[in-house]
From TrEMBL:
InterPro entries per the UniProt record, alphabetical: Aldose_1/G6P_1-epimerase (IPR008183), Gal_mutarotase_sf_dom (IPR011013), GH-type_carb-bd (IPR014718), LacX (IPR037481)
Protein name as catalogued: Aldose 1-epimerase family protein
Ranges in a coiled coil: none
GO molecular function (one): isomerase activity
Gene Ontology terms: biological process: carbohydrate metabolic process
PANTHER family: APOSPORY-ASSOCIATED PROTEIN C-RELATED (PTHR11122), GLUCOSE-6-PHOSPHATE 1-EPIMERASE (PTHR11122:SF13)
């Protein structure tokens, strides 16, 4: 089912399948979220849970048994139920069951809440351990944004800007397996800015960890238009677009990542894994703000 929320600045649509945001339009009708053209990438903003990225051979070991799970987990392909809603917000819920336990043998509830603001939209993931043993998980967002934002601009007119100066090398990702090379490094960020070009993503996502910055933006420096994300509280950030020169860029806040080539297959020992005590819950939020709205 498709739900719609709105305020005086934006209208958003959310699909109960995967609790996925599928549209974010300004009051003048301009679409800021990636349109999901299957020629490039058919998704819009999938929810990543209980893993981010790929497992080695799509399987992992939990408490002595092997379980299979596809890249980015199963939440994006599960039907969520409406928990609560208002005019400009809603919360959708996914609870564990027989089918999820065949892949992930834990009791949980994942609550995804979307709230429109005067600048854009906020997303909150609430993870609850409803079982009697510790709950290991990773969670992340994967929203894509249409580029160019300006009607007469080009993809290369935009730049990725960080809030603070940065100095780190992104790990290489194996294009065949999706695993992250634990030792080999690729693109290196020095400073606050990366001019966008499609070739940046020919080796998959740029993956950053423990950045000094808590915000990142995609912006046209001439017009000032673009998208800004506040990802405070997420230790990792992925920046991605398809290798086929897709006209969009994803900004992805993560709590964990794909399996490293240098680590084993024990689920609880994966890099970035969060573990909740029985009865516990945790929240992870990020906010998207539109810069220089076309409607203004």
């Amino acid at each position: 089912m498709i739900y719609e929320i709105s305020n005086q600045f934006f209208t958003a649509k959310i699909d109960s399948l995967g609790a996925q945001l599928i549209s974010l339009k300004g009051c003048g009708g301009h679409e800021y979220l990636w349109v999901g053209n299957p020629e490039y990438w058919r998704e819009h903003a999938p929810v990543l849970f209980p893993i981010v990225g790929a497992l080695r051979e799509n399987r992992t070991r939990i408490d002595g048994r092997w379980y299979e799970m596809n890249r980015h987990g199963f939440a994006k392909s599960r039907e969520f139920t409406l928990k609560e809603r208002g005019e400009d917000w809603l919360a959708l819920s996914l609870e564990s069951g027989v089918e999820t336990k065949a892949m992930y043998p834990f009791d949980f509830e994942l609550l995804v809440t979307y709230s429109l603001t005067d600048g854009g939209i906020a997303t909150r993931f609430t993870v609850k351990n409803t079982g009697e043993r510790p709950l290991p998980y990773s969670v992340g967002g994967h929203p894509g944004f249409n580029l160019p934002v300006d009607e007469e601009a080009e993809f290369e007119d935009y730049t990725l800007q960080f809030q603070q100066p940065e100095s780190q090398a992104c790990p290489e990702i194996d294009l065949g397996t999706g695993l992250i090379h634990g030792e080999r490094k690729g693109f290196r960020l020095e400073g606050k800015e990366i001019p966008l070009q499609h070739s940046l993503f020919y080796q998959d996502a740029l993956v950053f960890e423990h950045l000094n910055s808590q915000t990142v933006r995609i912006v046209n420096k001439k017009s000032g238009r673009g998208i800004e994300m506040d990802f405070a509280g997420f230790p990792m950030l992925g920046v991605w677009s398809a290798v086929n020169d897709g006209p969009y860029v994803c900004l992805e806040p993560w709590t964990g990542c794909a399996t490293l080539t240098t680590e084993g297959d024990e689920f609880r020992e994966k890099k970035g894994m969060t573990e909740l005590a029985p009865g516990g819950q945790a929240e992870h939020s990020f906010t998207v703000r539109v810069l220089g709205r076309l409607e203004d």
